[in-house]
Amino acid sequence: MLSMRFKSQPSMAWNKGKAHLKHHYGSEMLFNIDLKAILIAFAVSYGAVTLLLQNITFALLAALLPDTALYGFAPLFLLALFLLFTPVLSGYVVAKLARNRPQLHVLLSALLGAALYAIFSKSHPLVWASIPLVLTWLGLALLAWKNKRH
């Protein structure tokens, strides 16, 4: 008697391949994400650095007199430093702390930073959200460059 396979019944080889894919790309992938590394990098870069820059800003503004040339420049410089430095630091720290898949961890950190920038921006949230998406990868590149040199 001939056995007929219908399209609704996959072959055994296909089932074995499907199980293999599920093992590598399915729910197991979520357990390989190191949330501790992402949260530590996010807290260090966006939390501690923000508090430090805020204290530096208040100290500079208190020390400088309003009629000096640097009085108007200091807050703009520190704002630019915050916008540019924190995503790079976040990407570097999360890539350093991640046990595996540093690119995936940097992507998740960049998405968190983009969400933070988009939520707190008053105008053009998509423009502001692109800043951490681009600069977080620079932190990963710095780590790769540093590891290549050593």
From TrEMBL:
This is Uncharacterized protein. Keywords: Membrane, Transmembrane, Transmembrane helix. It comes from the Bacteria. The chain crosses the membrane at residues 37-64, 70-92, 104-120, 126-145.
